Amino acid sequence: MSHTIKPFGANTMTSAFKTFLKKDSAVGVLLMIATGLAMLFANTQLEVLYDYFLDTPIELRLGRQIHIAKPLLLWINDGLMAIFFLLIGLEVKREVLVGQLSSRAQIALPGIAAIGGMLAPAIIYAICNVGDSTALNGWAIPAATDIAFALGILALAGDRVPASLKIFLLALAIMDDLGAIIIIALFYSGDLSNSMLILAAICLVALVILNRMKVMNITPYMWLGALLWIFVLKSGVHATLAGVALAFAIPLKNPKNPTDSPLEYLEHDLHPWVSFLILPVFAFANAGIPFDGMSFGDLFHAVPLGIMLGLVIGKLVGVYGFSIVAIKMGWAQMPRGASARHLLGVAALCGIGFTMSLFIGGLAFEHTGGDAETYLLTHRMGILAGSLIAGVAGYLILKLAPPVAEKQESATDLDHPLPGIEPSPDTPS
Fold first, then answer.
1. Residue 428: pLDDT above 80?
2. Using CA atoms, how far apart are residues 310 and 351, in angstroms rounded to an integer?
3. Which residues are 61's β-sheet partners?
4. Any idea what the CATH number is for the domain that residue 61 is in?
5. What is the number of structural domains in the chain?
């Protein structure tokens, strides 16, 4: 009998790595590593390699009419992030139809909190930048929330956090992402091409037909989705919206087999790719800020200051204030097992804009002309500083809260597992 000899510790390392990936905090840790590497590359002799990587030209040609030539950075921001928004669209559709947003009672508190969390930061930013029409393009930057980072910090608080707050934060983030989708569609689209819009509309009609015909095979949806992405990109509408449109066409349930859900299968398959590849790559590509020639005082210029105050104060006031008013007025209920202090901590965590803020900031300032590079650099400073302050503040508030004594539902009791977490065998799929 022969035995295969394995390196000492191989099983332990593999097991430890798998355990790490299943933690809520895993994505946040990877995003921090990606950000640190971006800073290292942008501020050392490795800057040449960093710029070369981001500026690498990639071309796609389909026949004579369709030609896409972009540097790698834009392929990441327009292409990979379209997959991210596909996942968001899938989550929104599932939650609205059968999840945490499927009833008025469930949607009330996170919906009201999300509205406050978008309005207050935008107002603060606008006040800080009044008189600068170019800077005002960035009003939506502090209105975004990075759910991966926020959930990661929430997980670090351990037994100080009721599980109901995770549900609240997830629902709020979904509403926040839906708001971001609407903002991108309405305010951050360029000059429109009618011919490409017509071709995109044809793809949308074809996707609807597939859905109405009860086609359960994902493959034709994905091929049409790829064509839709190309036409939307060339149309002047931001390409990431193609991911959302595709998501809404994916069938939730198979009428012949109620336990079969193409949407949930696709969502489950996309989660690890988005969490552990797409978001870290996006962070690495967009978080590299060269500090040469910059000073600490630059952080207090109107654009970064408006973003910082919007993320740290605006999100806190908007989410917490609107939530408390809704609870006091009887429009919504406090999450089970949570106190006002818990809610305050979660509201602070919503100020972690990071990847979503970086994405919207790129859209806001990529075509500003003249001082575009200055705006692009300074807004990143505000995002990183504001997200850091909000994350630390939220963690400290939750860590100082008393531990939750009563037995509470676990993450596997949610209708759907958290990003990066595999469902237990008893969890419905």
1. no
2. 8
3. 67
4. 1.20.1530.10
5. 1
